[in-house]
């Protein structure tokens, strides 16, 4: 039996597409806000918005052979990312006064969604379950990592509250659920909730992975 026969066909329905685009917009706004803090001009701000929102998914698609990447094939993703960046540029005072807790909550929701979508798409392309989980993590955190590298700073996922680990746990829960023949919607929902709850708990309780303190 082929590996993909163990997993249900992954299809992006209208509801999932809508939520995916909302997540793209949220990450684009986060990228644009980082661009403002870095004193970037309009072009730089739009570039950072695009890579923050779509960088992880683009790298994932290239790695699993889904070419051209969805961010290029489907114009709605690029348009949404640029719309988020343009909105921040045009209405920066309003966006800069959005409560930080709201941004953290939306970011956690976007992370959960992208981790589920990334792992699911990798499974659809016949990637083995372990690597599919990693593709889910890459989808969720890749854009922010590329953004930080472009802005010459240590990527936040390497030294901040549990973030990539939350995506890893959520994607693993989803993949295990699918392997156990749990309906796709339920597996994705449970995995997404696990990712979201873990991320929010890490922020609230300041959880971090162990690190070595230099002397």
Automatic annotation (TrEMBL):
The keyword Repeat does not apply. The chain crosses the membrane at residues 14-36, 42-63, 101-119, 131-150, 162-180, 187-207. Belongs to the UPF0126 family. Pfam families: Gly_transporter. It is a multi-pass membrane protein. This is Membrane protein YeiH. Keywords: Cell membrane, Membrane, Transmembrane, Transmembrane helix.
């Amino acid at each position: 039996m082929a590996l993909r026969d163990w997993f249900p066909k992954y299809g992006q329905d209208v509801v999932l597409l809508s939520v995916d685009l909302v997540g793209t917009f949220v990450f684009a706004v986060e990228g644009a806000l980082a661009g403002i803090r870095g004193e970037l001009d309009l072009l730089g701000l739009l570039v950072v918005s695009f890579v923050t929102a779509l960088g992880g998914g683009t790298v994932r698609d290239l790695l699993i052979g889904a070419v051209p990447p969805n961010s290029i094939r489907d114009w709605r993703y690029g348009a949404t990312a640029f719309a988020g960046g343009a909105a921040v540029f045009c209405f920066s005072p309003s966006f800069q006064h959005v409560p930080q807790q709201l941004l953290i909550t939306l970011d956690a929701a976007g992370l959960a969604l992208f981790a589920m979508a990334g792992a699911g798409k990798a499974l659809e392309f016949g990637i083995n379950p372990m690597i599919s989980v990693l593709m889910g993590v890459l989808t969720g955190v890749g854009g922010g990592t590329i953004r930080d590298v472009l802005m010459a700073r240590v990527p936040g996922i390497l030294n901040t509250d549990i973030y990539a680990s939350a995506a890893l746990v959520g994607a693993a829960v989803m993949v295990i659920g699918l392997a156990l023949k749990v309906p796709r919607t339920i597996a994705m929902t449970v995995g997404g909730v696990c990712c979201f709850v873990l991320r929010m708990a890490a922020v609230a309780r300041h959880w971090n992975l162990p690190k070595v303190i230099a002397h």
